[in-house]
Amino acid sequence: MSITRRELIGGLAAAGAAASLPEFLKGQPAAAQASGQAEPFTFVHLTDMHVTRKRKGDEGYRKCIETVQQLRPKPAFALMGGDLAFDGNYTPKADFEECIRLYKDISDGMGIPYHNCMGNHDALGWSSRRKVPIDDPDIGKKMIMDRLGWEKSYYSFDHDGWHFVVLDSILPIGGKNNPSYEPRIGPEQLEWLAYDLGKAGGRPTVAVTHIAAFCNRGQITGNRDYRAMDGGMVLWDTRELRTVLERHKVKALLQGHSHNIEEMRYHGVWYLTSAAASGAWWAGDWVGSPPGYTVFRCDGDKLTWEHVEFPWTPHLEETDALERKRIAEQEAFRQEQQRLLEKERAGIR
Ligand SMILES: [Fe+2]
Questions:
Q1: What number is the average pLDDT over the span 4-24?
Q2: How remote is the CA of residue 50 from the centroid of ligand 1, in Å?
Q3: Partner of 178 for a Cys bridge, out of 51, 140, 174, 231, CB 3.0 to 4.6 A?
Q4: In the chain, alpha helices (H)
Q5: In angstroms, what is the span from residue 130 Cα to ligand 1's centroid?
Q6: How far is the CA of 280 from the centre of ligand 1 (A)?
Q7: How do strand 78-80 and strand 114-116 relate by DSSP bridges?
Q8: What is the rounded average pLDDT for all residues in the chain?
Q9: How many angstroms is it from 237 CA to the middle of ligand 1?
C-alpha cells in the first residue's frame, strides 16, 4: 500500500500544481451526502523532519511541504510527530533557535493547521552532551514551546466527528542537577488520557506519540541482543498505554522516532510508524526507508492510509564519512538482492 516515488512525481508533474491521490483516498462527497454521514477528510502525519540547514535539510523539508500542498483532496490538517527541529540535545542554543525558526516558517507555509508533538530532539539540553549551561532558563521543552506558541505538550482536539490525541512521550527526569528524559508517557498523562478518551465518548480516535509503543528493530536487523526498551526505541510504559487505548477502542497510534515504516495491529489497535520526513537526518534513506510521510483518510468511522515518498537527493557534507559508508552499504545490499533475484528467477544454482 505505498505510492512509489515515481508515481508521486508523475502525479505532481502531470497535475502541475495538484498531486493526485490513489482512488481510495479520493473524496466521495455525493455518496457521503446521500447517507447523511459527515464527508470524508484526509490528514497527514509528518514526523522526524529534524529541520536544519545541515545537509540542506531546510530545502528538503520545503520540498516535503510542497508535496503536501499539492495533495488532492487538500488535507484538513497535519499531525507533526516530533523531532521537529534538529537539535536541542547536542547543538548550541543559537543553532537550535534557528532550526525551530526554520521549522515554523516552512510549516506555516503549508497552508493547513498543524499540531505539534514533542520529540526527544526537541528538548533543549536534556542530555549529558548538552551545549547549554545546566541552569539555562530555556532548558527542556520550554524553548520550542515558547517559539511555536505551543501551550501544553499533550492535548486533544476534534475534527468532523473524529477525536485526535497528541501525547508527550518525553518524560523529564534528573531534576535541576542532571536534566534528562525517559521514554515514557507517565502516570499523570495516562490518567489524563483515560478521562479524555472517556469524555470523547467512543468517537473514532487517532492518537500520536513520538516514541513508539512498538518497534521491531531487533527482528528487522536479526540482532538477538537488541533490546528496544534498553535502547530507548520504545516506551517503557507501552503496556499501560496500550491498555488504555484498547479499552477505549482507539483506531490507531501514530508513531515516529525509529525512522522506519512499520505497521502492527494488536488487540484492535493499529500501531503505525511513518517514515521520517528527513530519512536519515537528511543523509538519504534510513536503512531502506526513504524520506516520506503518511496520508490518512477518515471516512465514516473507517481509517485508511498510504505511505508517501517525496523526491530528495541528499547533500552530504565533507565530514559525513559515516553517512557515505552507510549509503554505499545500502547500495551494495540493493545490488546483491537484485543479483540474487535474477539468478533465482532464471533457476541458476
Ligand atoms: Fe528522529
A1: 39
A2: 7
A3: 174
A4: 5-15, 29-35, 57-69, 93-108, 142-148, 187-200, 217-221, 238-247, 321-345
A5: 17
A6: 9
A7: parallel
A8: 90
A9: 20
Q: How far is the CA of 254 from the centre of ligand 1 (A)?
A: 14
- Residue among 230, 231, 236, 187 at smallest CA distance from 213: 236
Distance in Å, CA 53 to ligand 1 centroid: 16
Residue 176, pLDDT score? 85
Ligand 1 centroid, distance to 35 Cα (angstroms) = 42
Distance 80 CA to ligand 1 centre (A): 12
Count of all residues that appear for the chain in the document: 349
Q: How confident is the model at residue 231 (pLDDT cuts 50, 70, 90)?
A: confident
Phi, psi dihedral angles at 264 (to 5 degrees) = -145, 140
Q: Ligand 1 centre from 257 Cα, in Å?
A: 5
> Ligand 1: distance of its center to the CA of 282 in Å?
11
Which of the two residues, 128 and 291, has the higher pLDDT score? 291
**Spatial distance between the Cα atoms of 298 and 88, rounded to a whole number of angstroms:** 34
Q: Are strands 262-266 and 269-273 parallel, antiparallel or unpaired?
A: antiparallel
Mean pLDDT of 37-45: 91
The strand order across the sheet containing 302-309 reads 114-116, 78-80, 41-46, 292-299, 302-309
CA atoms within 13 A on the CB side of 175: 1
State how far the Cα of 183 lies from the Cα of 337, in Å rounded to an integer: 36
The Å distance, Cα 109 to ligand 1 centre, comes to: 22
